[in-house]
Amino acid sequence: MTPASSDFFDLVVARVQHEASSIAILDLQRADASGLPAWQPGAHIDVRTQDASGKEVVRQYSLCGPQGEDFWRIAVLADTRGRGGSIHLFQMVTQGQKISVRGPRNHFELPNDDRPVVLVAGGVGITPLLAMADRLHEQGRRFRLHYFARSRHSMAFLDQLMSEPYQE
Questions:
Q1: Which of 100, 110, 132, 159 would give a disulfide with 48, using CB separation of 3.0 to 4.6 Å?
Q2: Which of 117, 123, 98, 146 is nearest to 41 (CA)?
């Protein structure tokens, strides 16, 4: 499979971790734990799920875990004001379950130059910026990450963000 594949394929939910007030972190891997296509910071995958009426829908989730591993990580915000796709994933997906995905694709690439970068995130919008911050740190580039949310209780990845390389 190529990274720009238009075909859906099944992955297994290797881990579900509920974080913050309404966010689930899902680690997805192949059933045989073989590798997944490489991805770049800012990339997302399409995930098949169900809306509130039970109809199949496709939702996009940014990849936010470590690169070069045998799994992909996404964060799902259970948006009670949405149409139900994220609620279904948040409430119904369990470890060991198969889910259908497509990708990765990247429409939000990190510029490859030496300029300092300011990353600004709100809520679960932190997910693509985590990978960007990690890449910037690996490259030795200067960056600042600002993360806004309604409360600390609703902030995903807070422990990670309170450690290096995110602290000055």
A1: 100
A2: 117
Give the sign of the dihedral formed by CA 145, CA 158, CA 164, CA 71.
negative
* b/e code 83-111 from CB counts within 10 Å (16+ = b): ebbbbbbbeebeeeeebebbbbbbeeebe
pTM over 0.90: no
CATH number at residue 16: 2.40.30.10
SS3 label, residue 13: strand
Q: What is the DSSP string of 100-155?
A: EEEEEEESSPPP-SSS-EEEEEEGGGHHHHHHHHHHHHHHT--EEEEEE-S-GGG-
Amino acid at 145: L
How many residues are there in the chain? 168
| Per-residue pLDDT tens over the stretch 9-23 | 999 999 999 887 788
166 domain-assigned: no
Question: Do 66 and 74 contact (CB within 8 A), yes or no?
Answer: no
Higher local confidence (pLDDT), 164 or 155: 155
Q: Which domain holds residue 13?
A: 9-106
Q: Domain tally for the chain?
A: 2
